[in-house]
């Protein structure tokens, strides 16, 4: 009886809902009658998802390479999902801010700890062969990776370190974008010629990246922090979470990623060219890139030594022990 009353009340509410939008409830109830039950595989589009791993060679390990890139892109999407909510949020709620950062950091933690799948999980001999079929594609062309940076901080903080002090937020987005650090990384310094990897990326994504940079101008995650009151800015949980994000995104992920470049591309007699054509040993180290999303929260010393310990460890393992 109680159940019947509940159903009657639900039908009344439905009638009201559909009447309000000029719809006929009875027709929708027919639809409900004929609708198939939802399954797990339809809900998450499993068949589509599992059909997206399409190797270009017959080397079995290439599938690991594809899948791990795809997994990473999905995590990048989760990170952007949280970043967008932060940028859209107009409250000054420090707990909300810290909670979103905590989620982002938890995604980075997974990415950093799982990178062994790349470093140890493939045969070098296979890698060096199937990568030749992937030229000139490179993870360098990950647009989500670049979007994460643009949502995190002002474009002036992403200018190449060699000329960062010549630019400020007063410069136009277009000008700052032209001097963004990764463009230099994929340009032949002697001829000024851009690599094909970079040219293709620019052609495909420049309008979109510029649009996002304009949309979040003075409204990035860093600006959200800068706009807090004096006391809120001192919140230790918040500062710790911001520092963790900076180190995760700009040192620790880079560290693990560069570990894979070392494993596959380093040779006793000269290094193997990167697929994207960069001089990767000079481009990838975090202490050379010096990308810092939230400079205000560090001391001068911390900024000067950004990621340095790691480079010492990688290039001069003996020296870094002392
Ligand atoms: C065996 C594994 C890997 C190797 C050897 C490798 C190697 C490289 C190299 C040499 C570069 C410099 C650009 C170039 O010349 O191509 C690069 C850039 C990059 N790769 Fe990878 N990579 C690996 C895995 C990954 C994975 C799994 C991702 C995930 C999406 C990724 C994302 C990136 C990104 C975002 C950059 C640009 C980094 C920056 O601008 O600081 N890579 N990679």
TrEMBL record:
Domain of life, source organism? Bacteria
One family name in Pfam for this protein: Trp_dioxygenase
- Gene3D superfamilies cross-referenced by the UniProt entry: 1.20.58.480
- Annotated signal sequence is none
Q: What is this protein called?
A: Tryptophan 2,3-dioxygenase family protein
Q: Which organism is it from?
A: Maribacter confluentis
